[in-house]
Design a protein that fits this description.
Elements lengths: L3 H15 L14 H12 L4 H4 L10 H16 L4 E6 L4 H8 L4 E6 L1 E2 L4 E2 L1 H10 L5 E5 L12 H13 L3 E5 L1
Parallel strand pairs: 1-2, 1-5, 5-6
Antiparallel strand pairs: 3-4
Length: about 170
């Protein structure tokens, strides 16, 4: 069974191919510029200084894992980063992605509190405070994998303060 909305979308695409409005050519190495630009503006906001001053850009990647790998490679080879921190627990591929990108130091910050079955906010902040300045900090934007537990808005503000004060590089897996 095919969802009716999928059938409708396929019919629209087929018509656009027939009319030569779209094609099946490969995208550039950086992906579809309109998509990357739109995603960047959605993430940062149209009026963000980084957007209005042309200090931001986006890159489209194949899959979440592909995007993480491209980002890790960029951080290692163009920004000379070699220390990464990710949550404990985290998604199984995080360490491997950064290892294969050439990072040298792999660390976990406390996230899950087994006793309370909740977010270990104090432990996370302490670990980020103790991380070497300029470390890459992998963060889950929402629906933390695998716990599903997310920081509150106020907790995110404090996390951002620590990341900024320690000159860490926040790297969102979203």
């Amino acid at each position: 069974w095919i969802l009716p909305v999928v059938k409708k979308a396929e019919a629209i695409l087929a018509k656009q191919v027939e009319e030569e409005k779209i094609n099946h050519e490969y995208l550039s190495v950086l992906g579809l510029e309109a998509f990357a630009s739109g995603a960047t503006k959605m993430l940062l906001g149209d009026s963000s200084p980084a957007v209005t001053e042309n200090r931001s850009f986006g890159v489209q990647a194949l899959s979440g894992t592909g995007a993480l790998r491209v980002g890790a490679e960029f951080l290692r080879h163009h920004m000379n980063k070699d220390t990464v921190y990710y949550s404990d627990p985290t998604w199984g591929n995080h360490g491997l992605i950064f290892k294969n990108a050439g990072f040298k130091s792999f660390n976990k910050y406390r996230y899950w509190d087994q006793e309370t079955k909740g977010f270990n906010f104090a432990g996370m902040l302490e670990d980020l405070e103790n991380a070497p300045e300029g470390s890459v900090i992998v963060l889950h934007a929402c629906a933390h994998n695998p716990t599903g537990v997310d920081p509150s808005h106020e907790e995110w503000e404090k996390i951002a303060e620590v990341v900024k004060s320690k000159k860490h590089f926040p790297f969102f897996d979203c």
